[in-house]
Amino acid sequence: AKGAGRNQLCFFDPALQAETVERALLVRDLRQAVDNDEFKLFYQPIVDTHREVKGVEALLRWFHPKHGMVPPDRFIPLAEQTGLILPIGQWVLETACAQLAAWQQDMQRKEWTIAVNVSGRQLNQTSFVGLLRRVLQKTGAPANRLRLELTESVLQDNVESTIAKMNELCELGVRFSLDDFGTGYSSLSYLKRLPLEQLKVDKSFIDDIFEDSCDAAIARTIVALAQSLEIGVVAEGVETPEQMKWLVENGCQLFQGFLFSRPVAPEELAASPIKLSS
Ligand code: C2E
Ligand code: CA
Ligand code: CA
Ligand code: CA
Known about the structure:
Layout: H1 2-11, H2 14-33, E1 39-47, E2 53-64, E3 68-70, H3 72-82, H4 85-103, E4 113-117, H5 120-124, H6 128-139, E5 146-151, H7 159-172, E6 175-181, H8 188-191, E7 198-201, H9 203-207, H10 213-229, E8 232-235, H11 241-249, E9 254-255
Helix pairs in contact: 2-3, 4-6
Bound molecules: ligand C2E and calcium ion (CA) (3 copies).
One calcium ion binds next to loops.
């Protein structure tokens, strides 16, 4: 009887119920969002030490007809849980590749890369290599300008087949970044076996480099690790000139963050971010 009481209490918890209903409604709307053309890709520049744009990261935005812009942290987890990340992720790849193809006619943007976030569930679908091959063919995008950003979580299970798939994708010409590096569980021993072009130092380490000597040590170590593996490294979430200066002094050469630009619609992308006096 006690147990039943607890269950009832749980069932009628109004806050929990509101959350469940809200979630169900969002999932319902998410199912329609691709067809209703509610997604847009925003792009955030990745710059070098001279603040020259080298590429961009594609970041998904959902413009819900009633709620306005729903942040990705709210709907990407739902998309992953429901499998909707597969059609949504395909739309992201098609849109980013179409953008890459269009930039081939644009002298200022021809050399830019586009990094696309790919979730583990997407990478693990059996048809992913074929899907990407078709998207590249259909759009005419240069594969060597496409970067796929994976997080360490894709290495949680079946590392061997993940490595094999990454190698197959490399043969198409695309390259890989390991995103949010340092926040996950990846074993350093896998790192040298993965075909990676670069590591991305997670924003959480950059945030506190001046307040937290541990975070500073971690950021410095990740940069050094990338150097010794002879791969690139991008610092994420750079917000101040002091952070950039510190990163440059510690050997980092690529930067992404609000200091340079927020993610913006493609029509708002400047060829070079506005230089702040620093
Ligand atoms: P992420 O891949 O780590 O992307 C970087 C996030 O940091 C973006 O948030 C970006 O707007 C934010 N950011 C960049 N620089 C700064 C900064 O200087 N300060 C602050 N405060 N934030 C900064 P966003 O766009 O909200 O995306 C959140 C996450 O959603 C992404 O994290 C990524 O995991 C996921 N996501 C976004 N688009 C896609 C997508 O197309 N597919 C998948 N699977 N996931 C996506
Ligand atoms: Ca990313
Ligand atoms: Ca990241
Ligand atoms: Ca993140």
